[in-house]
Protein backbone atom coordinates (compact mmCIF):
# COMPACT_ATOMS: atom_id res chain seq x y z
CA UNK A 1 0.00 0.00 0.00
CA UNK A 2 2.84 2.38 0.84
CA UNK A 3 4.25 2.23 -2.70
CA UNK A 4 0.83 2.79 -4.25
CA UNK A 5 0.35 5.87 -2.09
CA UNK A 6 3.81 7.15 -3.00
CA UNK A 7 3.01 6.69 -6.68
CA UNK A 8 -0.19 8.72 -6.27
CA UNK A 9 1.76 11.43 -4.44
CA UNK A 10 4.36 11.53 -7.22
CA UNK A 11 1.62 11.92 -9.82
CA UNK A 12 -0.37 14.59 -7.99
CA UNK A 13 2.60 16.70 -6.92
CA UNK A 14 4.69 16.16 -10.05
CA UNK A 15 7.75 14.93 -8.18
CA UNK A 16 10.09 12.01 -8.72
CA UNK A 17 10.92 11.00 -5.15
CA UNK A 18 8.67 10.67 -2.11
CA UNK A 19 10.33 10.01 1.24
CA UNK A 20 8.58 8.25 4.13
CA UNK A 21 8.31 11.57 5.99
CA UNK A 22 6.56 13.37 3.08
CA UNK A 23 3.93 15.79 4.40
CA UNK A 24 2.24 19.15 3.95
CA UNK A 25 4.98 20.62 6.13
CA UNK A 26 7.83 19.69 3.79
CA UNK A 27 6.19 19.96 0.36
CA UNK A 28 5.85 23.46 -1.06
CA UNK A 29 3.53 22.21 -3.81
CA UNK A 30 0.94 20.88 -1.33
CA UNK A 31 -1.82 23.48 -1.60
CA UNK A 32 -5.60 23.15 -1.28
CA UNK A 33 -6.15 22.34 -4.96
CA UNK A 34 -3.52 19.61 -4.99
CA UNK A 35 -4.92 18.29 -1.72
CA UNK A 36 -8.29 17.79 -3.40
CA UNK A 37 -6.60 16.18 -6.41
CA UNK A 38 -4.77 13.87 -4.00
CA UNK A 39 -8.04 12.86 -2.35
CA UNK A 40 -9.66 12.12 -5.72
CA UNK A 41 -6.70 10.05 -6.91
CA UNK A 42 -6.56 8.09 -3.64
CA UNK A 43 -10.31 7.40 -3.75
CA UNK A 44 -9.99 6.07 -7.29
CA UNK A 45 -6.81 4.06 -6.64
CA UNK A 46 -8.08 2.39 -3.45
CA UNK A 47 -11.82 2.36 -4.23
CA UNK A 48 -12.73 4.24 -1.05
CA UNK A 49 -14.68 7.38 -0.22
CA UNK A 50 -13.35 9.81 2.40
CA UNK A 51 -15.51 11.83 4.77
CA UNK A 52 -14.78 15.58 5.03
CA UNK A 53 -13.15 15.16 8.45
CA UNK A 54 -10.89 12.43 7.00
CA UNK A 55 -9.82 14.74 4.19
CA UNK A 56 -8.87 17.50 6.63
CA UNK A 57 -6.72 15.10 8.68
CA UNK A 58 -4.73 13.71 5.72
CA UNK A 59 -1.51 15.68 6.08
CA UNK A 60 1.22 13.05 5.63
CA UNK A 61 1.80 9.50 4.41
CA UNK A 62 1.08 7.93 7.81
CA UNK A 63 -2.30 9.64 8.18
CA UNK A 64 -3.22 8.68 4.61
CA UNK A 65 -2.36 5.03 5.29
CA UNK A 66 -4.41 5.03 8.52
CA UNK A 67 -7.46 6.53 6.78
CA UNK A 68 -7.33 4.06 3.88
CA UNK A 69 -6.82 1.07 6.19
CA UNK A 70 -9.78 2.14 8.33
CA UNK A 71 -12.01 2.35 5.27
CA UNK A 72 -10.91 -1.01 3.89
CA UNK A 73 -11.70 -2.97 7.08
UniProtKB/TrEMBL annotation:
InterPro entries: ACP-like_sf (IPR036736), PP-bd_ACP (IPR009081)
Domain Carrier: 4-66
SUPFAM superfamilies associated with the record: ACP-like
Pfam families reported in the protein's UniProt record: PP-binding
Protein name: Acyl carrier protein
Organism, as annotated: termite gut metagenome
Amino acid sequence: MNEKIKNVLKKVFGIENVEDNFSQQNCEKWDSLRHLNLVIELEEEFNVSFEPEDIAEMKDIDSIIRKIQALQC
